[in-house]
Design brief:
The protein is of the alpha/beta class. It is built from 17 helices and 13 strands. The strands form 2 sheets. Strands 3-2-1-4-5-6-7 form a 7-stranded parallel beta sheet, sandwiched between helices. Strands 10-9-8-11-12-13 form a 6-stranded parallel beta sheet, with helices on both faces. The structure holds uridine-diphosphate-N-acetylglucosamine. Uridine-diphosphate-N-acetylglucosamine binds next to helix 1, helix 5 and helix 12.
């Protein structure tokens, strides 16, 4: 029988910020490794543009340079979202990919989802169904909208399915595949374990606290000063290592908060992926308001104290090593004691956080 040659199908992913890169990298790698007649095209919106927030990740994660860069830069939510939409629309019209993938909940994902959906393209959301039920978080609005317009909803924990059902998403659209951010971590584990950063900084294994804070609810108002003061108190008894997000750096400067980079509270520029995960993996614990770090610490079995009132990742509290402190900087002073408590817990890695999620996504894409 003579069969016409199968057309290669194009999967186009849109990334924009630091946590997006780790979520898409293993999908790009799985498509390249396998022979499903798929090809991957990577578009970087440029929402994160500093080298330390962006370029370093492409270099370390082995995804190669993006095929297209939209270079939207910083702005208000509307400006970032609008610029991505304007610049992405002609590109998607030209390429007409078979599937557009967007990861996570950032403004770039929202913008790309709206454009792809209105062009009638098949849209897949990686990390669908997470909900904090806090609409004051810009990410929560993005999650709800992206899920509503997505055809393929790739989820990494069972409660996501319930949230999507409640919002009327048909079960056929939902695929429980696991966590692609953990795929990246599992794939990089040897390099993370061999990374010398902890010794280079003169830190002792399990002897220091890693801090990341960047959410508007914390850093854009008076709580930032309280948080820094509490961190200085903790640093008197335990080294505190704080790579500072550009947004937080700008707010510290604007609030006139004086900090000595060589003091016991050690401030750094944002770190690359490998350095950061190496620091986390060998720390006593982490204090954060990030979403992804709650997952990475649960996978690594490292205590995580989350300085927020809620989490869209409750599985990390129920099964993993995460504790919700509330949005209350005074509680930072309890960090050393809380870390000890969490270390005594029987924490587990959630199901399907096994390094194979990207393969399961590509199975779904190949069968379309
Ligand atoms: C974004 C995401 C957030 C994610 C975070 C990870 C949204 C709504 N928020 O927040 O969910 O957890 O990324 O880091 O999309 N800036 C720079 N250089 C950069 C990037 C940012 O200087 O490369 C500064 C700019 O002043 C910018 C500010 O940081 O205005 C905030 O950046 P933005 O991308 O708007 O949001 P993030 O706070 O990074």
């Amino acid at each position: 029988m003579i069969r016409p040659m199968a057309r290669r199908r194009t999967i186009l992913s849109v990334v924009g910020t630091r946590p997006n890169f780790m979520k898409i990298a293993p999908i790009a790698a799985a498509i390249a490794r396998r022979d499903d007649g798929l090809e991957h095209v990577l578009v970087h919106t440029g929402q994160h543009y500093d080298a330390a927030m962006s370029d370093v990740f492409f270099a370390e994660l082995g995804v190669g340079e993006p095929d297209h860069k939209l270079e939207v830069g910083a702005g208000t939510h509307a400006q970032t979202t609008g610029r991505v939409m304007e610049r992405l629309e002609p590109l998607l019209e030209e390429l007409r990919p078979d599937v557009v993938l967007v990861p996570g909940d950032v403004n770039s994902a929202l913008a790309a989802a709206l454009v792809a959906s209105k062009l009638g393209l098949t849209l897949g959301h990686v990390e669908a169904g997470l909900r904090s039920f806090d609409r004051t978080m810009p990410e929560e609005v993005n999650r709800v909208v992206v899920d509503a317009v997505s055809d393929l909803l790739f989820i990494h924990s069972p409660e996501a399915r319930d949230h999507l059902r409640t919002e009327g998403c048909a079960d056929e659209r939902v695929h429980y595949v696991g966590n692609t951010m953990i795929d990246t971590l599992a794939a990089m584990r040897e390099r993370i374990d061999g990374n010398p950063v902890v010794g280079e900084l003169g830190l002792a294994d399990r002897g220091y606290l890693v801090v990341t804070l960047h959410r508007p609810a914390l850093v854009d108002g008076p709580l930032l000063r309280d948080a820094v003061e509490a961190l200085q108190d903790v640093a008197a008894s335990m080294p505190v290592v704080f790579p500072v997000h550009p947004r937080t750096r700008a707010r510290i400067a604007a609030a006139g908060i004086e900090l000595d980079a060589d003091g016991p509270l050690r401030l750094f520029e944002p770190l690359g992926y490998l350095d950061f995960l190496a620091l986390v993996a060998r720390s006593a614990g982490v204090l954060t308001d990030s979403g992804g770090i709650q997952e990475e610490t649960t996978y690594l079995g490292v205590p995580c104290l989350t300085l927020r009132d809620n989490t869209e990742r409750p599985v990390t509290v129920e099964l993993g090593t995460n504790v919700l402190l509330g949005l209350d900087p005074r509680r930072i002073r309890e960090a050393p004691a809380l870390i000890e408590q969490v270390r005594g817990r029987q924490a587990q890695v959630p199901p399907l956080w096994d390094g194979q999620a990207a393969g399961r996504i590509v199975d779904v894409l190949a069968a379309l």
